[in-house]
Amino acid sequence: TANDLSSGTSFTVINPTTTNSFQVTNSLMTGISRDEFYGEYNGCKTPPEKNTFLDTDSQVTVWFNFENSTSGDVFKWEWYEPGDVLYTQSNATNTYTNGCWFNYISIKSSSPASMPGAWKVKVYRNDILLFTKTFTIIDTTLPTVSSTNPASGATSVAVNKTISATFSEAMDSS
Predict the structure, then answer these.
(1) Dihedral, 94, 95, 97, 101 alpha carbons, nearest 10
(2) C-alpha torsion angle, residues 41, 77, 116, 39 (rounded to 10)
(3) What's this model's pTM, rounded to 2 decimal places?
(4) Residue 78 near residue 121 (C-beta atoms within 8 A)
C-alpha cells in the first residue's frame, strides 16, 4: 500500500505479471516435403537449411518454430517471384501455443521452374509481418539453337556473309 501525499488517498501497488508474448524462435528455407515434415522432422525438429533450388527440385519450403501463440491466430504466407510480383498466397488458422509451421510452393512441373531468379516469401501472423526469407531458383535447362542464318546445310554462301544464330533463351555475351 502506498499513499498519494497530495490528495491523502492510499492505493495498492500491484506488481505487474509478465506474460510471454509471441515469438518466432527459428525460421529457414528448406526443401522438405509434407511427408518429411510429419515424418522425419515431426515434433518440430529443425530441417536442413537450403536457399538455392534447381528448376528440377520438387518444391521450396519455408519453415518456422514459434512460442506463445494464441489459438485462432492466422498465419499467412505470400510468395513473390522475381521482380517482386505476388505469385501466390495462403493462410492457416493456428491452434497451438508452441510449435512449428511450414508452407511450400512446387517448382518442378510448375510455373516457378520457368521463372529463375531471386524469390522471397513473407510470413505474417494476424496480418503483422513476422519475417521475410529470400531464396533463388536456378535454371538448369541448357539452351538450344532455334535457327541459324544461313540455314543449316546451306550452299553457295558468300564468304563475307554475317552468320547469326537464335537460341531458345537469352544468352550471356560474356
Answers:
(1) -40
(2) 10
(3) 0.75
(4) yes
pLDDT tens digits for range 77-127: 999 999 999 999 999 999 999 999 999 999 999 999 999 999 999 999 999
Q: How far apart are CA 150 and CA 155, in angstroms?
A: 9
Average pLDDT per consecutive 10 residues, the chain (174 residues; last block may be shorter) = 46 45 97 95 96 97 96 97 98 95 96 97 97 97 83 83 83 73
Residue 101's closest CA among 59, 41, 57?
41
CA dist., res. 35 & res. 164, Å (int):
49
Length of the chain: 174
How far apart CA 171 and CA 165 sit, in angstroms, is 11
DSSP 59-124: EEEEEEEEES--TT-EEEEEEEETTTEEEEEEEEE---SSEEEEEEEE-TTSGGGG--EEEEEEEE
Look-up of cell digits 539452351: 143
The predicted structure's pLDDT at residue 174: 65
- Stretch (H or E) spanning 11: strand 9-11
d(CA 174, CA 165): 16
For residue 37, is it left (φ>0), alpha (ψ between -120 and 50) or beta?
alpha
What is the spatial distance between Cα 124 and Cα 121, in angstroms, rounded to a whole number? 10
